[in-house]
Design goal:
By secondary structure, this protein is α/β, with parallel strands linked by helices. The protein contains 6 helices and 11 strands. The strands form 2 sheets. Strands 1-3-5-8-7-6-9-10-11 form a 9-stranded mixed sheet. Strand 10, helix 6 and strand 11 form a beta-alpha-beta unit. Helix 2 crosses helix 3 and helix 4 runs parallel beside helix 5. The longest helix has 15 residues. The termini are far apart. The protein binds 2-acetamido-2-deoxy-beta-D-glucopyranose (NAG) (2 copies). One 2-acetamido-2-deoxy-beta-D-glucopyranose binds next to strand 6, strand 7 and strand 8.
Length: about 240
């Protein structure tokens, strides 16, 4: 596939999606990354849906110097680990510095297909344009929080320029979506956001993240060391 797309020098938009997590790379026939990567000189949009091993193999072989929008959906799995994807983002100039992250949890009724998902979007503070979006379809809220924690820790480059983080439930989510997430899990989710100054919480989540942060008073664990303001929806 890399050989084929590398010949498409005017390729502006690339979308690659798999229907099911059963589509996995065949390890026996894998070859080592070549010494040089194929450059897609005008690629601006890249969308992917599949298992993370596939994306790892693909992005190890390509460069998209003009890329400014990356939308990824990973099928849910126990552990996400994507060193090649991190390097790919890090060597793409337009995907380098973001000030704003939105972490959104969404629970949809079954008839919306895979409407239940967690996602993290990264953008600059002013444009509002969402350059990077990573989404994990899964239903249970604790799985959603756990997968976001993994994505923010293991799948994205260090989020050292972020200033604002928004954590909310998608407004279309069902109202009766209950949760009993352990405080520790919320703190782990917040752990990678070392530079964040402003924390924005929706109504539902201030009732669980508030007590989690309260637990930190007087202990030496550092979560959100740069935090200055907390904004609560409706107040
Ligand atoms: C995000 O995309 C916009 C629109 O294409 C672009 O202007 C910007 O440089 C990109 N990167 C960041 C970090 O905002
Ligand atoms: C996150 O980004 C994706 C892709 O651009 C978009 O479809 C989705 O609505 C965004 N979510 C939020 C909450 O902004």
């Amino acid at each position: 596939m890399v050989t084929a797309i590398s010949m498409l020098t005017r390729l502006d938009c690339l979308v690659l999606g798999f229907e099911s997590p059963r589509s996995c790379p065949d390890w026996a026939s894998r070859c080592l990354p070549p010494p040089t990567r194929s450059v897609l000189p005008v690629l601006t949009y890249f969308g992917f849906k599949g298992v993370c091993k596939y994306l790892e193999d693909l992005v190890a072989h390509i460069d998209g110097p003009r890329l400014n929008k990356l939308e990824v959906t990973f099928f849910n799995q126990i552990v996400f680990d994507t060193p090649q994807f991190i390097q790919f983002i890090s060597r793409t100039p337009n995907l380098e510095t973001f000030e704003k992250a939105q972490v959104v949890f969404q629970y949809g009724a079954w008839y919306y297909g895979d409407a239940s998902a967690a996602s993290v979007n990264l953008s600059s503070r002013t444009s509002g344009y969402r350059n990077v979006s990573v989404r994990i379809p899964c239903i249970e809220l604790d799985w959603q929080v756990l997968s976001m924690e993994q994505i923010c820790t293991l799948c994205l480059p260090p989020l050292s320029t972020l200033e604002d983080i928004y954590i909310y439930k998608c407004p279309y989510s069902q109202l009766d979506w209950q949760d009993n997430i352990e405080n520790m899990l919320w703190l782990e989710l917040l752990h990678p956001f070392n530079s964040v100054k402003n924390l924005y919480l929706s109504k539902e989540f201030m009732l669980c993240i508030g007590p989690a942060l309260q637990e930190l008073v007087g202990v030496s664990v550092t979560v959100l060391p740069a935090l200055q303001n907390i904004f609560l929806e409706g107040l």
